[in-house]
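Subject: sequence -> structure tokens, single chain

Hey, anyone have a minute? Need the predicted structure for the following. Not urgent.
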Amino acid sequence: MYDRRGNSEEALKWWKLAGDQGLPDALFSLSRAYSGGKGTSRDLSLSYAYFKLSKVAPAKNVNEMASMLSKPELEKAEKMVAEWKPQPTALTLKALSGFRAAEEHLKVARNRVF
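Reply:
Had a minute. Here:
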């Protein structure tokens, strides 16, 4: 939303908050922002790390992006990826629990014979 309105800095803030929780689309958006220097300074190591963490891109694309980095940049990015752990908030965990419960309820309801 903020990105479409041209407010890259605000978009980056929200992508970071969502990405820290492990949301793949937010991680992918962070990758794009750091790749293009949109709302932040350009940083290909961070771009690659977020790209890899997003698990949205095919391995071929991840490997292609890795080949664009110097050895120190790639080592820095791989270290970040290895050490990264999503930090979902209590509200996110509760929401995910609700989604799982709703999915289970639908599964049971679909299997009922009336």
